[in-house]
Amino acid sequence: MRKKDFFFFFILPFTGVLFLFFILSAVNRSFIKAKVEDVVGEQLSASARILKVHITRLLEEGYPPDTVLRSYEEEENIYFIALLNGRKEILDWVSRFEGYLPFSERSAAGRDTQIIESPIGKIFTVFTSFSTKAGALYHLYLGYSLENLEDMLAYSRRNFLYLLAAMAVVGLIFFRGVFEIHRHYLAKAEEAVAEKKEKERFKEISGFTAGVAHEIKNPLNSLGLLCQLLQNKAPAELSEEVRLGQGEVQKISRIIDQFSEMITPLSMRKDVCRIAEIIADIQAMLAAESQARGVPIEYIPTRPLVLLADKMLLTQAVHNVVKNSLEATAAGSVVIRAESHRKKISIAVSDSGTGISEEDLPRIFEPFFSTKSTGMGIGLYVAKKIIEAHDGAIEVKSGQGRGTTFLIELPGGVS
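The chain above was modelled as a monomer; its predicted structure follows.
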């Protein structure tokens, strides 16, 4: 996976979503704060208008200015209230902040409404003026603590951090999944390109080798006929040499036939096949060799298993695997097990032979690779080719001195 793909399909989208969420959350908190401050300002201004009417009436009725605010000591909506004269001197005040009144020249000279800092936090204030019928000028100073707003914003920030952490985890999982899907897609695309090139190369090689095999086979047949004629007419002292020559010609002919079989594309005709019947055919084909070696081929069935396959080709593939195990076993037995699991049929072929070395194990399915002194080493290659053509898979588990097990998996079902 290239670094550019990792950046564009994982890092960039993940950080982009987190950044966008952070910005939207900050804007949302600012909007809520501004709206709450507007509501508080409107509420406090309305309270100031009502208080001005009431205080004006008390002053006009002759109540002393330093006592008119006593009735507002228990007011919950207003945190402090102060009455000032025309010279902005405090005549009376009431505060819920333990005798603290956040008032300054700046408060008196500022806007009608403003937010000020105080030891107990931010306070929204209203400074407004009114006059009595006698013409006396007074000022009313009210304050409303924004402590609840600050608590709400702190709670909002805390929840935002929790939500951001949750978003980070979910985003990490989601974009990691997107990245893995993209990587899997690229890997599959690369495999498809490689497979296409391999098929084209194999097609070219197949055409070339088929032509070479044909050109060799024709004179080879003639040479075989000539050896047969010589066998009939040659002197007795040369008959053995002629027989050996004829055997070598036949050996070359078999090699060419096997090579042609290996490079020929498969043509399958699928039908319903029973695993038990295929195993029985293989046991019959290898009965003589099994008896000669003293190595029995045992089949351990579980229940009747069927699948859709080309019976002749599948029989050949399993036959090649069983034959390979039989030839690798000097004593003991070759055991075949078949079972069904999750709509797949598994065929395991195990032997008690010497096993395969760690160095040879990766090459066991390569064409023309063999650890035996006889054979061309194409049996397992052809078996793998046939099994993969059936959308199946084959793998091998082995170790020197521990025997070998071939596991074949094919799509199928149970009846």
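The first helix runs from residue 3 to 60.
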